[in-house]
Write a structure and sequence with these properties.
Layout: E1 7-9, E2 19-24, H1 42-50, E3 54-60, E4 65-73, E5 79-80, E6 83-86, H2 91-111, E7 117-124, H3 133-145, E8 150-151, H4 160-167, H5 186-205, E9 214-218, H6 222-233, E10 237-241, H7 245-255, E11 258-259, E12 272-275, E13 294-295, H8 306-315, E14 319-320, H9 323-326, H10 329-339, H11 343-351, H12 353-367, H13 371-395, H14 397-400
Bound molecules: nicotinamide-adenine-dinucleotide.
Nicotinamide-adenine-dinucleotide binds near residues 185, 244 and 262.
């Protein structure tokens, strides 16, 4: 992949303290297999490795802003993805996170059939102590400089209030409250996870009814609460955990579920394990403990190592529902703000995650590949096809000549 520096500009605000560094890459399908380019440019090698188009570093020391916006791929449309605020141990950790997360958004939107690209942003700082109106307004001005190439939303560490501050400076923000916004995405994420679990049950147990099925749910947050409600309604026997025991116990009381301590959840004998807390929970330590036939949950980046741990699950006969496919309900809901979909349209699109997953599971089985490989392939093919028709369109003499 060839990368060229398209823009490296300083655009000072009144106090002269804001600058934008934009690194843009020309489009290519290929990915590099090295971590340092032949010329020794480690940063550019990382962009090559993941295939990013543009990374913007945002600095405004007057308000304590240090943020990075990563635009992975805009072939399908503007890059939409949340802004995460996190106390990263180093700049390198923040860069790695934003690159990985933004790439995931490209795949999530592509498989969900959305006309959106993949992007994500991180603000480096403690979300409990370092938030202010001016920090988010300053950040909003950076989002505005991208003129819609990147559209932001809430993520870990940011809230509706923060989005409203950002909106004071840019219209390229979703997830605000009131009539302009699409509201809390969690119920839609949970709906997608629910239908995704049913699709997996159809493949593994020959029926998508969850009546009598034992399901272990990790996490008792917004997604998990909405999910447990649906699972119990469908007749499942549910076990719940959370690092905040009372949160899990509250759900257990409300829905008649069973509580286990956090470290015990992996070894619960069940039909389906549903991770709805943190990422990287499927790893060398946890996978050998699993006693289930299906892993299907809403958490992002569940596999510590995508290829290796997906393979470990498959070797144990466990069907894995790719996380970015099954948890796309929240993104579909946010997209309704841009596409002006009705609630019914959103629900229908989220429910189509059932068919998408069936297709992925069947493709994986037919071709002897991992389910994550099957879903990656769907995403990459859709992007390649859209890139192709866009090229055809631009080059068409009949179009050019009106
Ligand atoms: P949340 O913060 O409301 O809930 C997460 C819960 O997980 C918290 O209660 C937390 O205490 C618990 N937790 C953290 N570490 C844990 C551990 N080791 N063991 C057990 N519990 C633990 O978050 P949420 O909105 O419910 O999202 C859950 C997951 O789904 C996250 O990974 C998120 O990135 C992903 N996701 C959420 C949405 C959405 O619409 N909210 C959309 C897509 C993906």
């Amino acid at each position: 992949m060839k990368i060229r520096l398209l823009k490296a500009s300083v655009s000072p605000n009144e106090s002269g303290s804001i600058f934008v560094l934009a690194i843009a890459a020309c489009c290519s399908n290929t990915s590099a297999s090295h971590t340092v380019s032949p010329q020794g440019h480690a940063m550019f090698a990382e962009l090559e490795l993941y295939g990013h188009e543009q990374v913007v570093f945002c600095s405004d020391p007057d308000v304590g802003l240090r943020a990075i916006i990563a635009i992975h791929d805009t072939t399908l449309g503007p890059a939409l993805g949340g802004t995460r605020m996190w106390n990263y141990a180093s700049d390198a950790e923040a860069i790695t996170d934003v690159l990985r997360l933004s790439r995931g958004m490209t795949y999530k939107a592509a498989v969900a059939g959305l006309n959106l690209g993949g992007g994500k942003a991180v603000i480096i700082g403690d979300p409990h102590t370092q938030k202010s109106e001016m920090l988010f307004r300053s950040y909003g001005r950076f989002v505005e400089t991208l003129r819609g190439r990147y559209i932001t939303a809430e993520d870990v560490g940011t809230t509706v209030r923060d989005m409203e501050w950002i909106r004071m400076e840019t219209r390229y923000v979703t997830g605000v409250a009131g009539e302009q916004g699409s509201g809390d995405p969690s119920p839609y994420t949970a709906l997608g996870v629910f239908v995704g679990i049913k699709a997996a049950a159809q493949i593994v147990f020959g029926s998508d009814s969850l009546a009598g099925k034992r399901i272990a749910v990790q996490g008792a947050g917004n997604v998990a609460r909405n999910l447990v409600s649906r699972l119990v309604e469908d007749g499942a026997r549910v076990t719940v955990t959370d690092i905040f025991e009372e949160k899990a116990r509250e759900i257990c009381r409300e829905y008649g579920a069973e509580y286990v301590p956090p470290e015990a959840i992996y070894a619960v004998e069940c039909d389906i394990f549903s991770p709805n807390a943190l990422g990287a929970v499927l790893n060398d330590t946890t996978i050998p403990q699993l006693r289930c036939s299906v892993v299907a949950g809403g958490a992002n980046n569940q596999l510590a190592d995508e290829e290796r741990h997906a393979r470990m699950l498959a070797e144990r006969g466990i069907l894995y529902a790719p996380d970015y496919v099954i948890n796309a309900g929240g993104l579909i809901n946010v997209t309704s703000e841009i596409e002006h979909w009705s609630r019914e349209q959103v629900t229908r699109k989220v429910e189509s995650i059932y068919d998408t997953l069936l297709r992925i599971f069947r493709t994986a089985e037919r071709e002897g590949i991992l389910t994550i490989e099957a879903s990656n392939r769907i995403a990459e093919e859709r992007i390649a096809h859209v890139r192709h028709i866009h090229r055809t369109y631009v080059g068409s003499p009949s179009i050019r000549n009106g």
